[in-house]
Design a protein that fits this description.
mainly alpha, single chain, two-stranded parallel ribbon
Length: 407
C-alpha cells in the first residue's frame, strides 16, 4: 500500500499522552500474564508500546488509516526524567564512578567503530553502496532516529542510493525494538550464570522494587510528591536559562543535558548549604515520578512507531540488523561485562548498554530499571551510563560517521 494514499488521523498531544498511559497499563497486563515478558525483565511500556504499534500497523494495512501522534508532551517527560536522574546523583558516586565512566566511554567509542564495521560488512554482503554502512550502523542505532534523519540526505547525495532516508529510519525503528527486548534477557543470563546479587539500597532512583509495591508507606504523600516536583521544576527552570546561555555562545545542547547538569549541581550543593532542608533525592516520591515519566515517554515512543515504513525494505535490512543484534549480544557477554567489573553493576549496565547502543538512552534506563526492580539496586549504573550516552556519544559518533562516509 502506498503511504501517500492513506488517510491520516492526527492524535492531539493531550490524547496521545492519555493513550500513552493506557498503553503502559496494557503492557503491565501483558507482562503480568505472559511468563516470558516477566521472566526476562521486559519493561511494561515496551510490551505495551510494541503491541500498540502493531495495532496501528494493522489499521494502516487493513483500513488505509495512518495514525500519527503529536508527541510534544513526550519530549517534556524526557526533560523531567533526566532532571530526576541528576537530582539523585551524589558526588561520592560520581567520584567512585570516575574510573567506570572512563572505561564505559572507551568501550562505547570502540563499539561505535565495531557497529559501523558490521554495517560495512553488510553493504558488501548485500551489494549496497559502502556509505550506507553508517545508516546500517551507528548513525541509526546509537544515533537513533534524529541522527539517521540528519545523515540520510547526505548519504543519499554521496551514494546515489534513493532509499537512504528510508533505510536509516527503518534501521532506527527496528533497532529501538531490539534494544527494548534484549537488554533484560542479557542481564538475566549474566545474573543467573554468575549468581550475582544487588547491593543494599540507600534509596530508590527509578521506580520502587516489585516486592515493595502496594505496601503502605506514609513517606509517599502529597507533601513528598510536591516537594519532589518543586525541586524538579526549579532545576528545569535554571537548566533552561543555562541552555539558552550556552546556545547564545554557539554551542547547541539538548535541554535535558543542561537540566541534568544543573540538577547534579543542585543536589550536591543545596544539601551542604542547607543541611536541615528536606531534600527529595532518592526518596520513593522522586523514584515514582522518575519511573512515571520514563514509562510514559517510552510507551509514547514505541506506540508511535510507523512499522509500515519497514515494508519493502526487508532482506538486506533485516539481515544486517540480525548481524548487529548478534554482534551486540556477543560483545556485551564476552567483553563488555568483563571490562566493566564482572559484578552485579556490570550486569545491570549490560542491559543498559544494549538499550542505548541499539536504541536510545531512555530505553537503556528502562532496561536497567526493570532489572533492578527484580534483583536489587545498582545506583552507580544509573549515574554513569547517562553521563556517557548524554554527553559524549553524539559528538564522537558524528566524527566516526564522517570517517566512514568520507565526507
Amino acid at each position: 500500500m502506498n503511504i501517500d494514499t492513506a488517510q491520516t488521523i492526527l492524535i492531539t498531544d493531550f490524547m496521545a499522552f492519555t493513550i500513552g498511559i493506557i498503553v503502559f497499563f496494557l503492557g503491565a497486563m501483558l507482562t503480568r500474564n505472559i511468563a516470558f515478558l516477566q521472566n526476562f525483565n521486559i519493561p511494561e511500556p515496551v510490551s505495551g508500546g510494541i503491541a500498540a504499534a502493531l495495532v496501528t500497523w494493522a489499521l494502516y494495512s487493513w483500513l488505509n488509516l495512518e495514525i500519527a501522534f503529536d508527541l510534544s508532551t513526550r519530549d517534556e517527560l524526557l526533560v523531567i526524567f533526566f532532571t530526576t536522574i541528576g537530582l539523585n546523583a551524589r558526588l561520592k558516586d560520581l567520584i567512585a564512578g570516575g574510573r567506570m565512566l572512563l572505561i564505559l566511554l572507551v568501550i562505547t567509542l570502540s563499539f561505535i567503530v565495531f557497529q559501523n564495521l558490521i554495517g560495512l560488512m553488510g553493504t558488501r554482503l548485500f551489494d549496497l553502496p559502502a556509505q550506507l554502512s553508517v545508516l546500517l550502523g551507528s548513525a541509526s542505532l546509537i544515533g537513533g532516529h534524529g541522527t539517521a534523519i540528519a545523515w540520510g540526505p547526505t548519504i543519499k547525495e554521496i551514494s546515489g542510493f534513493t532509499s537512504a532516508n528510508e533505510i536509516g529510519i527503518a534501521a532506527a525503528t527496528l533497532g529501538l525494538v531490539c534494544a527494548a527486548l534484549i537488554g533484560g534477557p542479557i542481564a538475566k543470563f549474566l545474573i543467573d550464570r554468575h549468581r550475582l546479587v544487588g547491593a543494599e539500597s540507600d534509596g530508590p532512583i527509578v521506580g520502587v522494587p516489585f516486592e515493595e509495591e502496594g505496601e503502605e508507606d506514609t513517606k509517599v504523600n502529597h507533601i513528598s510528591i510536591m516537594r519532589s516536583l518543586l525541586a524538579i521544576n526549579i532545576a528545569i527552570i535554571i537548566g533552561y536559562v543555562v541552555n539558552q546561555a550556552i546556545a547564545a555562545n554557539g554551542l547547541k545542547l539538548p535541554l535535558f543535558v543542561s537540566c541534568l547538569l544543573v540538577a547534579i549541581v543542585m543536589s550536591n550543593t543545596v544539601t551542604t548549604l542547607f543541611p536541615k532542608l528536606p531534600w527529595p533525592a532518592r526518596t520513593r516520591a522522586m523514584a515514582i515520578i522518575s519511573d512515571y515519566c520514563l514509562s510514559i515517554f517510552l510507551a509514547m515512543s514505541l506506540m508511535s512507531m510507523q512499522l509500515w515504513s519497514l515494508q519493502g525494505l526487508g532482506g538486506p535490512l533485516l539481515g544486517v540488523l540480525a548481524f548487529q543484534v548478534i554482534g551486540t549480544v556477543l560483545f556485551i557477554i564476552l567483553l563488555f561485562y568483563r571490562l566493566m567489573g564482572k559484578d552485579y553493576t556490570a550486569a545491570v549496565l549490560s542491559a543498559g548498554f544494549a538499550g542505548f547502543t541499539l536504541g536510545a538512552t531512555p530505553t537503556a534506563i528502562a532496561n536497567m530499571s526493570s532489572v533492578t526492580k527484580r534483583y536489587g539496586p545498582a545506583p552507580l549504573a544509573f549515574i554513569v551510563l547517562p553521563m556517557v550516552s548524554a554527553f559524549f556519544v553524539d559528538l564522537a559518533n558524528a566524527l566516526i560517521i564522517q570517517l566512514f562516509v568520507g565526507s
